[in-house]
Design goal:
71 residues; mainly alpha; 2 helices; 0% strand; flat
């Protein structure tokens, strides 16, 4: 979102360096969901809305939720 300052919309996680990283089990998705996730992430990365981040302790897996057609 070009009109909003990164200082307003950016955040960081306060993580204690005393904790070791824990890798979560990789979830498997069907081909339709995987393709939808991949397309959406690529689109957001291309326009600069998101960027890759590394967190040393935890990060939740993606959860796909289908939007309702009502709006």
């Amino acid at each position: 979102m070009p009109s909003i300052s990164p200082e307003v919309i950016s955040h960081s996680l306060s993580i204690s360096p005393a904790y070791k990283p824990v890798r979560q089990k990789r979830r498997s998705y069907d081909a339709e969901r995987y393709e939808a996730m991949h397309t959406e992430v690529d689109k957001l990365k291309t326009i600069g809305f998101i960027q890759e981040a590394t967190y040393p302790i935890w990060l939740a897996n993606s959860v796909m939720v289908r939007k309702s057609k009502d709006g």
